[in-house]
Amino acid sequence: MVHDLTEWEESIGWSPYKIIRKFDINLRMHYCMKKMDGVIAISRYLYDYYKPYTNVIMVPPTVDLKAEKWNRNRELSSGEKIHLVYAGNAGFGVKDRLDIIVESVIKHPNMQLDVIGMTKENYVSGYGAFPEGSNNIVFHGRVPHTIAVKAVQDADFQLLIRDSNLKNNAGFPTKFVESMACCTPVIATLTSNIGDFLKDGENGFVVDNSNLLDDVLDKISKLTPSEIIKMKESCRSMTSFDYREYKSTFERLFN
């Protein structure tokens, strides 16, 4: 029996339901997983944790880079106005810090942020009041997946800002994988083992304590279209998330 392990859930609170949930999570993660014949770990965190106990391989989210929907052979371009995108369900601080992104982007009138998957009303209900003077942020709500992928392809950068916690470090963001598949550089915090793939200044930018999001956006605002296109080319040359790259890795499960 092999388990495909993609996350380490957390249960916050002490209601009867939460107590049962905590017991269930701890039983599965601290006992059951260690008894498996094998574990497919989505992140380095999970790989390192289970390596002493069972046969474990590390495989991030994968895609078929030859699929037409990624449109990787298109002519890559960038305009005078820098287009940013956030696509997904933010999770209201538990997962993605869209509030931090919004507060930084509104300071840069030469940028536009397209939020895919949420309405402005969703944002307010999750994060509170929307900042004033944010005319460069456009909410598109939920759209078909093909349209969301096209929005990522049309952007210059996708934003992925997360707090460092158990849930985020044990998982691996599919947003990052899909953005690379779309040839779109990523601005991200180094949760999970994103740092194995994100090369600062080459296929995106790292946000950390010494390189704040405001600083990164200032740097991006000074990039020329040709410099942004060069970063998109770097994403296009990356094949680390194509499923074909992991054939020999999966074979180790059965040796």
In the predicted model, the low-confidence regions spanning at least 5 consecutive residues are: none
- Tell me the Rg in angstroms: 19 Å
String of helices and strands? EHEHEEHEHEHEHHEEHHH
Characterize the largest beta sheet: strand count, sense, and whether it forms a barrel.
Answer: 6 strands, parallel
Please indicate the count of domains.
2
Arithmetic mean pLDDT: 94
Task: Give the beta-strand count.
Answer: 9
CATH topology of the largest domain: Rossmann fold
Quick one: CATH superfamily of the largest domain? Glycogen Phosphorylase B
Give the proportion of residues in helices.
Answer: 25-40%
General description of the model:
With 255 residues, this protein is α/β, with parallel strands linked by helices. The chain folds into two domains: 2-58, no CATH class; 68-236, 3-Layer(aba) Sandwich (Rossmann fold). Helices cover 35% and strands 16% of the residues. The protein has ten helices and nine strands. It has helices at 16-32, 44-50, 98-105, 120-127, 145-154, 166-170, 174-181, 213-221, 225-236, 247-251, and strands at 2-5, 38-41, 55-58, 82-87, 111-116, 137-141, 157-160, 186-189, 204-207. The strands form two sheets. It has a six-stranded parallel β-sheet, with helices on both faces. Strands 1-2-3 form a three-stranded parallel β-sheet. Strand 4 (82-87), helix 3 and strand 5 form a beta-alpha-beta unit. The model has no long low-confidence stretch (mean pLDDT 94).
